[in-house]
Design goal:
With 623 residues, the protein is mainly α. Helices cover 65% and strands 4% of the residues. The structure holds zinc ion (ZN) (2 copies).
Length: 623
């Protein structure tokens, strides 16, 4: 990097400085920044460190490359200016190399000595995309100048190792540190959370003398991240009882847990907690609330919250709303929201298009989907990623355009993943395209020999077309029975803030005698209404028809729904979460229950949300 040293030594007046400070404050665009820059140079104020640093910070926010040019023009920058440059470049992986270059300029050429901030920012850059070797070099420099035991530097080091996934290295720094503060503990916990090691994170959390809102939020976010939503909510409740007041981040995680557990009561409670003014509503929280209502099956509430909130400048609430309508099979509403976005000058991002394409897909709107896929590139300059291709393949597959779906896969610039092939395979099952299904099943098996979902689908293709022998052979050959037996079906339902879990054929519940006789009564009622059990896709080992029916009737979601019917007032919606895909028969039964018992039933299974009402499901029987 070249250094341009000016010899401007005009006398410096403080009123100049004030004038410049106010000038810097009014800079709004790159154009104004350039004008101010010119003034700085002509008045020689660029050599005044306070104003130069202030200006540099402003420029760095607007354009890093411009900041770099400016930096090169500042004669003998002081330590603050160096640190500003290191920090500005440290935040993104594409520029963090420049942080290290500025750090090297500082330590080799400037004649200045780095302070703790220089190290904190440089370690930040290292963790964001530099090599372990480079990080270690900076660390040995910290040792040389005696700053390695400074608590700020220690925390930055722990964070750096955490970002690299070298959590145990971070732990060593943590253990050896003489000086530790709350931030050190929180950084160490965050490092464990980042690596998915929740047991260590929790152990450390429990060892803390006093946990602050960051400690609590990190643990709750960690449980959400690894899919332990009940634990996340348990922690959230503990926090409300004994911990500090939750902040925005805590609530975003807690709402995500509610969404995943379809825990509407608790989600509503958080919404009212925000409404009471305990925490200021912002657009990120708004997006989480919309998402929660949508996923709990309350799309009207989601939409009301969305439209009631004025001045939505950020993209998040828009994405949540489009995603919500997509999930509920309301593509035209999703498109309306997208068009409104344009009117309000909110730029869509890649997530917006995933949601929009999903909406088209769930609504069988092939032409619209193709149009938005094109517009995304031509009008918004967004390069399609694997998720977008996935949506398109799903869209075409759903519409039964299986050949086109396969063509789309071969046109992808990246390698297709198992999920994309899985979408086509699923369509082969639905459209009974056995030959194609078999061929694609083999492709998936080659990519992932233990892919349970694929085996199940392939097995279902065989059994639903009556090829029981092939299905049985597949089961034996691929050890499907052991693979699927590892994950027993489990459904849960929330009643008054408590979760009740049911396994297949579960009789452990105190109410189970009542529950099973209710199930019998229910099945009779449904049969009168026209329900016929669907055996197609399971239990190949059972030959006797009656046994098959019994096995079907005790699927975990049926138990959970019956439990919900027994324990809630007529008309109350029932919300169920299932860990596996809902089977054909349970889907059919739930449609009948929604009509016969006049209940809205929301089932979130492993792949999507089903919203049953008046005998119809929002998935239109495609899942
Ligand atoms: Zn079932
Ligand atoms: Zn459905």
């Amino acid at each position: 990097m070249s250094r341009f040293c000016s010899t401007l030594t005009k006398p410096f007046h403080s009123d100049h400085c004030c004038r410049l400070a106010s000038l810097v404050d009014t800079c709004k665009s790159i154009q104004q920044i350039k004008q101010t820059h010119a003034q700085l140079v002509t008045t020689a104020l660029i050599s005044h460190h306070v104003s130069a640093n202030k200006f540099l910070k402003l420029v760095a926010d607007a354009s890093l490359s411009y900041a770099h040019k400016l930096f090169d023009q500042i004669p003998q920058p002081d330590l603050f200016i160096y640190n500003t440059m290191i920090k500005a470049h440290s935040l993104s992986p594409s520029s963090c190399n420049d942080s290290l270059m500025v750090f090297r300029l500082l330590t080799r050429d400037s004649g200045l000595s780095p302070n703790r901030y220089s190290f904190v920012f440089t370690f930040g850059a290292c963790g964001n995309g530099l090599s372990v070797q480079e990080g270690e070099q900076v660390r040995s420099h910290a040792v040389k100048v005696g700053l390695d035991s400074n608590v700020f530097v220690v925390n930055a080091l722990i964070g750096m190792y955490g970002k690299w996934g070298l959590v145990e290295y971070g732990r060593k720094v943590f253990e050896w540190a003489v000086d530790k503060d709350l931030y050190s503990w929180n950084t160490m916990i965050a490092a464990y959370v980042g690596s998915g090691n929740m047991s260590q994170a929790k152990e450390l959390f429990d060892e803390m003398q006093e946990q602050d809102v960051v400690s609590w939020s990190t643990i709750i976010a960690g449980y959400v991240q690894v899919g332990c939503f009940m634990e996340a909510l348990d922690f959230f409740h503990r926090m409300l009882q004994v911990g500090p007041k939750p902040n925005e981040y805590t609530l975003v995680s807690a709402l995500a847990a509610c969404s995943n557990l379809v825990a509407l009561d608790q989600g509503k409670w958080i919404h009212s907690f925000i409404g009471r003014g305990e925490i200021k509503m912002n657009e990120r929280l708004l997006a989480s609330i919309i998402d929660m209502y949508a996923k709990c099956g309350e799309i009207e509430s989601a939409s009301r919250v969305f439209w009631e909130h004025n001045a939505k400048r950020k993209v998040w609430p828009w994405n949540a709303m489009i995603g919500g309508f997509a999930m509920h099979g309301k593509p035209s509403e999703a498109i309306k929201v997208f068009q409104k976005m344009k009117v309000e000058n909110v730029s869509p991002n890649k997530v917006t298009f995933v949601a929009l394409l999903n909406a088209c897909s769930h609504g069988y709107m092939v032409e619209e989907g193709k149009l938005y896929f094109r517009l995304m590139v031509s009008d918004y300059g967004i390069i399609p990623e694997i998720e977008h291709y996935g949506c398109m393949v799903d869209l075409l597959s759903r519409a039964g355009l299986l050949k086109e779906a396969e063509d789309m896969i071969s046109s992808m610039p990246m390698a297709p993943d198992v999920a994309i092939w899985g979408a086509v395979l699923n369509a082969c099952r639905i459209y009974k395209d056995m030959e194609r299904g078999y061929r694609i099943g083999r492709i998936i098996k080659e990519m992932d020999p233990n892919h349970v979902g694929c085996h199940v689908l392939l097995g279902n293709i065989y059994s639903s077309s009556g090829r029981w022998n092939d299905a049985r052979m597949l089961r034996e050959k691929s050890e499907i029975s052991t693979a699927t037996k590892k994950i027993p079906g489990c459904s849960s339902i929330e009643l008054n803030g408590t979760f009740y879990q049911f396994l297949v054929g579960d009789r452990s519940h105190p109410q189970s005698r009542e529950l099973y006789s209710f199930l019998d009564e229910m099945t009779t009622k449904l049969k009168i209404a026209g329900y016929v059990p669907v055996f197609g896709e399971l239990l190949l080992d059972i030959d006797d028809e009656e046994d098959k029916e019994t096995a079907l009737s005790v699927h975990s979601e049926k138990l959970a729904i019956a439990f919900g019917l027994l324990n809630t007032a007529p008309g109350t919606p029932i919300r169920i979460v299932k860990n596996l895909r809902v089977c054909r028969d349970c889907h059919q039964v739930t449609k009948f229950i929604s009509k016969v018992y006049d209940r809205v039933i929301i089932v979130r299974d492993r792949t999507r949300y089903h919203h049953f009402k008046d005998g119809i499901c929002s998935c239109k029987d495609y899942w």
